[in-house]
Structure formats: C-alpha cells, structure tokens
Amino acid sequence: MRDSLATLKTELERLGAANDGATAERSRRMLNITRDTGEFLSVLVRATLARRVLEIGTSNGYSTLWLAEAARAIGGAVTTVETAEYKVGLASANFARSGLAPIITLVHDDAGHLLQRSEQSAFDFVFLDSERPEYPGWWPQLRRVLRPGGLLVVDNATSHVEQLAPFVALVNADPQFSTSLVPVGNGEFLAVKAPT
User: Fold this and answer.
1) Contact 69, 5 (CB under 8 A)
2) Which of 28, 131, 149, 161 is deepest in the core (most CB within 10 A)?
3) pLDDT value for 20
4) Is 110 helix (H, G, I), strand (E, B) or coil?
C-alpha cells in the first residue's frame, strides 16, 4: 500500500506540473501543493492528532492524499470540498487508486455552503487552498467549525501575500487565535484556536 501510494503521489506531481505548464486557464490547472508542504501537513495532522480534517480545495486530490494518509495513521478521516466537476472526477479516481477512499468524503459543492451546513467545532484541522478572495467572507464560518485548540493552515501565504493580506489581517486581529507564518513550499499561514 505505501509503495503504491508513494508511486501515485510522484505520478500526480509529474502530471500536475506538466498540465500546469501546458495551460494558462486557471480552472483547468491543478495548482498542487509542493511535496515539502505535503510532508509538513502530514506531520501537523499526526502531531495534533487531528482526526477530523477538512480540506477546502481538492483539485486532483494530491494534497488530500497527504492529509488522508496521516489521518488514517491516527484513526481519522478527511472531508474535502471542490466546486469544479472536472476536478472532482480526477480526485475521485485518484482516491480509488490510493486505497484511502474509505476515509475520504469528497463533496462536490461550494465551500461556503459546506461550512454553513457543518456543526460548530466539527473539525480539528482545516487546510485552506482554494479561491483566496473568498476567504474573508468564509472567516466567520471557518472560525465556528474549527474546534477549540484546532489548527487552520492556509497555503500560498508567501507566494500570494497581497491576495491573502485581508484574510491574514482578520485572523491576526482575532484574540482567540495565535498565528505563525512558515516558509515551507508556497508559504503556510498557521492559526491555532485558543483551547477554551
């Protein structure tokens, strides 16, 4: 299982890079996280014992595989949401190949709708890698669905500083959250919610 999952990850890295180099249309690009970001997310999930993981922005499922592999190791599961039907199809096929499909719930919907439907404190860990202009509008719901002591991780914190600035300002202004910027991959903005 590990070897085939490792092979699948390497294949998706190669396919993602080739695809993104050949198309400028954002909706058709994979925009995958970097391998070191995947490793970082895996460590964070395990270290925080995050059994209820939410990923916003599935794409072809590359990042989901890192999250799900880590979640499986601690008896957890991942919910991932994607709006693009094309990418939902790709991700679904990749999850089936990975052997991790039983612990992944793939939701084809707008993230805002999923957040509104989710219970308070529903998730231990949220990975945000989607439409950056939407983040400030999602903040009240993101804040609500993350359990006390839970961790929010936001991708592209150094590669898209200006786009993320309004959201980062909101989170930094919230006294319930402690934050850090980690220069891994395209930059990860971490925000941990106060335990009470």
Assistant:
1) yes
2) 131
3) 74
4) coil
